[in-house]
């Protein structure tokens, strides 16, 4: 739910003035407050991060976990004018280090993983999905802890996400971005 003083369009410059102990994201200029994640969310995020991070050792791409700001510019906006701050995605893989600055990444990452909850499902599956597809994020994963499912969306040649590949806790995911990387979901969803 959007919360903050009404303003026509909030930007990264506005975001930098807000209290550091509050977690916000801005989509199309509208600010959304984020709540603290559950322990299940943190466990899933930690294991996915660990597996990806271990693979990326000595490779050019880097993985980041929240809190980490992702600013996706539209056109040639200056950093402070960006109004699409998808702040704090759970996990982000970036392969262009030149776009790392200030509080995060200013560009289009290669892979984004969002761990959804009932309160964020609409935003993750609709608003962010459409933004990431339009921006050209090559892979977008939506993790559903309650169902122990991961939907993997891959950008197709027509610059649209195809039908998702859906995985359960018993599966392994071959990461499209890194064909040699396989994520073992047995360790991602233990006792959750």
UniProtKB/TrEMBL annotation:
InterPro entries: Nuclease_put_TT1808 (IPR012296), Restrct_endonuc-II-like (IPR011335), Uma2 (IPR008538)
UniProt KW rRNA-binding keyword: no
Pfam family, one: Uma2
Listed GO MF terms: endonuclease activity
Span of domain Putative restriction endonuclease: 13-185
PANTHER family linked: GLR1098 PROTEIN, RESTRICTION ENDONUCLEASE DOMAIN-CONTAINING PROTEIN-RELATED
Name of the protein in its database record: Endonuclease, Uma2 (Restriction endonuclease fold)
């Amino acid at each position: 739910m959007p919360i903050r003083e009404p303003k026509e369009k909030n930007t990264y410059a506005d975001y930098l003035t807000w209290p550091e102990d509050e977690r916000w994201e801005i989509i199309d200029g509208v600010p959304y407050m984020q709540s603290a994640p559950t322990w299940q969310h943190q466990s899933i995020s930690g294991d996915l991060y660990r597996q990806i991070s271990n693979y990326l050792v000595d490779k050019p791409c880097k993985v980041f976990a929240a809190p980490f700001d992702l600013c996706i510019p539209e056109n040639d906006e200056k950093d402070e004018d960006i109004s699409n701050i998808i702040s704090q995605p759970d996990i982000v893989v970036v392969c262009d280090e030149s776009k790392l600055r200030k509080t995060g990444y200013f560009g289009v990452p290669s892979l984004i993983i969002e761990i959804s909850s009932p309160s964020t499902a609409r935003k993750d599956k609709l608003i962010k999905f459409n933004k990431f597809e339009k921006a050209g994020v090559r892979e977008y994963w939506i993790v559903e802890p309650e169902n122990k499912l991961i939907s993997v969306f891959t950008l197709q040649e027509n610059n649209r996400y195809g039908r998702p590949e859906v995985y359960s806790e018993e599966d392994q995911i071959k990461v499209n971005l890194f064909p040699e990387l396989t994520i073992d979901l047995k360790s991602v969803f233990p006792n959750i």
